[in-house]
Write a structure and sequence with these properties.
Layout: H1 4-23, H2 34-51, H3 54-57, H4 66-105, E1 112-113, E2 120-121, H5 123-138, H6 141-155, H7 165-206, H8 212-230, H9 232-259
Antiparallel strand pairs: 1-2
Helix pairs in contact: 1-2, 1-4, 4-5, 4-7, 4-9, 6-9, 7-8, 7-9
């Protein structure tokens, strides 16, 4: 016979699963139906509940009853959302890089709907996001997110999550990494466009009759897109590095949540 405590533990597992699936990359995509996310969360919850004993899932000294359940429910939801968000930071990095490229090339005035977030986005930001999504799936990045959920109970069993300064430090470091990677991806094109603009400025002084805006826009566009195409193989290597960075950030977050220190 299934006891009340077993049901409450299963619900807590389900809430953590829901939290990560609704906020993680790919799974949290708005194009993925809500019923699919809930079904997958339920399936994962059954696997976790069946593969681990309650003593492994729940921290020692934690009593689950009607009084503590709702506090633990909120805590587990926050753990799941935190894991999903930290995994999403690498996607924010490539989108940021694409936005920088669009500003330099001249695409920033064009607005498209991002397929993942249903928010306005620029063309290259969309392109890089879609390419990285495909690459992420191809190198089992999505599977790594699921694995992080399955292993999270070894680091952060139910009832011991520490949402303190160490967790904030992990997210701060992830944010700094986000911006540095974005600039690193866009830097070669930004430098080339900068040198092109200097050359156009010199040419306009030498030939005052030349319409710099009329001539410069197609030149900038051509150079920018050509460099993006040339650098695509290097971008693939960087994407592989991004998946490794995601795994490291997830591990750091689990350590911070479980012990209070990253």
């Amino acid at each position: 016979m299934i006891g009340t405590t077993s049901i409450l533990i299963f619900l807590l597992i389900f809430v953590r699963s829901i939290g990560i699936l609704f906020s993680a990359p790919i799974f949290g995509n708005l194009q993925v139906p809500t019923i699919v996310k809930i079904g997958l969360a339920l399936y994962l919850s059954v696997i976790i509940n069946a593969s681990e004993t309650h003593s492994m899932l729940v921290a020692s000294g934690i009593t689950i009853n009607d009084m503590t359940f709702f506090v633990l429910l909120i805590q587990e939801a926050l753990v799941g959302v935190a894991l999903g968000l930290i995994a999403s930071f690498v996607f924010y990095a490539v989108q940021f890089a694409g936005a920088l490229l669009d500003i330099q090339i001249g695409f920033s005035m064009v607005s498209l709907v991002n397929p993942g977030f249903s928010t306005p986005s620029t063309p290259l930001a969309n392109l890089v996001y879609i390419l990285f999504s495909l690459f992420f799936i191809g190198v089992h990045g999505a599977a790594n997110v699921i694995l992080a959920l399955l292993q999270s109970y070894r680091y952060v069993p139910i009832g011991v999550a520490h949402f303190g300064g160490s967790v904030a430090d992990v997210f701060l470091h992830a944010t700094i990494t986000l911006f540095s990677i974005g600039v690193e991806i866009a830097a070669p094109v930004m430098l080339a466009i900068f040198l092109t603009n200097i050359a156009l400025a010199v040419a306009s002084r030498a030939v005052p009759q030349m319409n710099v805006f009329f001539v410069g826009l197609p030149i900038t566009l051509f150079i920018g897109l050509a460099l993006v195409g040339v650098l695509m193989p290097a971008l693939v290597d960087l994407m592989r590095e991004l998946v490794d960075i995601m795994d490291q950030q997830i591990n750091s977050l689990l350590l911070a949540l479980g012990s209070g220190s990253a």
